[in-house]
């Protein structure tokens, strides 16, 4: 199991929060461009808490030498995996000549993977689509994977939709192109030696269990963000752990020292609170939780105690 890299969402605060719910699922950073690391504030992009392991850094780029340098940084900072983004369809990413448009250049992707693998000992993986624009046939996907696998990549995370490079927004690209899970299933059947993970449109644990009959892993995106308690049963269902699932109240308690530490580092509570609004999704009292942790006046200058207050208001709302 893994939680997808999501720009502006899967930052270090969300990942720490998610780790309080599942001990085993892999967590991915937001996509970080090679330029941001090579010419920007490395610590701001790469720092994370040890509790987040296993955690992977997703890179955006298309220059093998630059990606190799960034992969070295990922290893130096302690990441467990470095992942190449070959799936993002946004026009801004395309202008940088990376993301989903790289599916049209499988040999370049292979060169990028080889450069990264030669530079580090940690796993180098690729996240990609099943095709781009109007290319609908399965062979396109298989041929792309074969070229990249020849460069040594063993793990492919496949978003089971085409990426439409012109005319659709990133949001529309997550909804309009049809899901073709059968393409991903077939890829695993035909390339059993590769690790194949499925991504795209997964919303329930029952769906995850069905997909795992056909592939090696499942990556969940927005559902894990908006409804994070979906992850609470993953350790038991998909990793065979016997420990009891966490309780929401204990997750809040676990967040308190983290929040205090980050506020001490200069973060604002709103930067953390926005990621945990869905903790009580679907539960009585959830409105109180969301209201208090999204109220600008309450958040202004607040410390970790606001979480405790919001929890008490939530529990009172549940009893009411």
TrEMBL record:
The active site is at residue 88. GO terms for molecular function: flavin adenine dinucleotide binding; FMN binding; tRNA binding; tRNA-dihydrouridine20 synthase activity. Signal peptide: none annotated. Residues 3-307 form the DUS-like FMN-binding domain. The keyword tRNA processing applies. FMN binds at residues 5-7, 58, 127, 159, 199-201, 221-222. Belongs to the dus family. Belongs to the Dus family. DusA subfamily. The lineage of its organism: Bacteria, Pseudomonadati, Pseudomonadota, Betaproteobacteria, Neisseriales. InterPro entries: Aldolase_TIM (IPR013785), DUS-like_FMN-bd (IPR035587), DUS_fam (IPR001269), DusA (IPR004653), tRNA_hU_synthase_CS (IPR018517). The gene is dusA. It catalyses: 5,6-dihydrouridine(20a) in tRNA + NAD(+) = uridine(20a) in tRNA + NADH + H(+); 5,6-dihydrouridine(20a) in tRNA + NADP(+) = uridine(20a) in tRNA + NADPH + H(+); 5,6-dihydrouridine(20) in tRNA + NADP(+) = uridine(20) in tRNA + NADPH + H(+); 5,6-dihydrouridine(20) in tRNA + NAD(+) = uridine(20) in tRNA + NADH + H(+). The record marks 85, 171, 174, 287, 290 as: Interacts with tRNA. SUPFAM superfamilies: FMN-linked oxidoreductases. Its cofactor is FMN. It comes from the Bacteria. The keyword Cell inner membrane does not apply. Catalyzes the synthesis of 5,6-dihydrouridine (D), a modified base found in the D-loop of most tRNAs, via the reduction of the C5-C6 double bond in target uridines. Specifically modifies U20 and U20a in tRNAs. This is tRNA-dihydrouridine(20/20a) synthase. Its EC number is 1.3.1.91. Keywords: Flavoprotein, FMN, NADP, Nucleotide-binding, Oxidoreductase, RNA-binding, tRNA processing, tRNA-binding.
